[in-house]
Amino acid sequence: MADFQKLADLLIERNMTVCAAESCTGGAFAAGVVSVPDASRVLEYSFVTYSEAAKHELVGVPTETIDTYGVVSEEVARAMARGAAAAGHADVGVGITGFAGPSGGTEKAPVGTVCFGFCLKGDCRVYRKRFVGLPRNEVRARAVDFAADKLTELLENG
N or C end of the chain: smaller count of CB under 10 Å? Predict the structure, then answer.
């Protein structure tokens, strides 16, 4: 399980704020952040952008990016993270998009695929994980844990 207290402490120590655009995790990453004391010091906005329209309208993901690369892609995760940071006036943007199942998925992004984008003061990194053979809510939980752990790692090493 991710250590959201450690993540919040790192953000506070660096005087940084975070904003997420979440799809398959449905706000669970933001819920993890606000589960710890002083969360208001690091999170002001967060977005659940479950539909393609929400990704475009709320955090500015270009429809061409979705059409070209697919809604579950590193390119869309990067655009979500960049857009979340901009829309949320945050130092750090997090984008999470995936197919939790049991339906959905494509040949390029089968069920269990989740893509992550992290933009820290404009420097963006993307990751793709496959959580194979897991039930829907386990895919979602593991995606939240990966996002929190990876952001913690990026903050520690950056």
Answer: N
